[in-house]
Amino acid sequence: MALSDLFAQNALVRWIRGDRQQYDLAVAMTGVRLGERVLQVGCQDAGLLAALGAKVGLTGRACGVDPDPAAARKALVSVEAAGVLVETASVPYDRLGYDPGSFDLVVVRRLGSLLDPASLRGALREATRVLRPGGRCVVVAGGRRTAPGDGDAVVQAALEAGFRGARVLAERDGWTFVEGLKRGE
Questions:
Q1: Is the confidence at residue 2, as pLDDT, over 90?
Q2: Which among 2, 144, 23 has a CA at the least distance from the CA of 82?
Q3: How far is CA 63 from CA 14, 23, 54, 60, 185, in A?
Q4: The total number of structural domains that make up the chain
Q5: pLDDT band at 4; cut points 50, 70, 90
Q6: Most buried residue, 4, 49, 130, 132, by most Cβ within 10 Å?
Q7: Buried b vs exposed e over 5-24: b needs ≥16 C-beta within 10 Å?
Q8: Average pLDDT over residues 18-35
Q9: What distance in Å separates the CA atoms of residue 151 and residue 140, rounded to the nearest whole number?
Q10: How confident is the model at residue 34 (pLDDT cuts 50, 70, 90)?
Q11: How far apart are CA 67 and CA 119, in angstroms?
Q12: 1-10, 100-109, 154-163: which range is least confident on average?
């Protein structure tokens, strides 16, 4: 495979060039709006982080976290190259380092170590902490085919983490979207 073929397959490169359709569904399912404060847990998918950051615009705040410092740095460089303003940090998924109520929306991109159910539960518990009352958390799993019933396992993990109204929003094109709402206080 030629280097140009590899370059063309890179999701962030396609997003920068204008082939954003891959993330249109994910952004629509998150329901992110202009001016919101959004945190993406898991920076391996810089294309999704760029799409979310572009959607919140200059009046919002987009942050991405990953326990791997190299992944967080790489995501920041890639997203800034796309002309989108974001913040990234290298922190464990179960200790996000933000104040309670800091975000309107937390997007958990279920990749890598977040495939482990224990890691996912820890990330969801922290998501509840950093969300404002009534805030939403959307778990995005897939990109490649997900296992049947995977959405049900994520719903159960969200309920155990303290979310109310957790549900599978959609399973489409190899993606699974699960939403949980933080209880109002």
A1: no
A2: 23
A3: 21, 17, 12, 10, 24
A4: 1
A5: very low
A6: 49
A7: eeeeeebbbbbbeeeeebbe
A8: 83
A9: 10
A10: very high
A11: 12
A12: 1-10
Give me the pLDDT at residue 112, please: 62
Q: What is the DSSP string of 79-138?
A: HHHTT---EEEE--TT-----TT-EEEEEEEE-GGGGSHHHHHHHHHHHHHHEEEEEEEE
- Hunting for tokens 């959609």 — which residue is that? 170
What CATH number does residue 31 fall under?
3.40.50.150
Structure tokens at 185: 């206080």
Domain range enclosing 75 = 3-181
Average pLDDT across the chain, whole number: 85
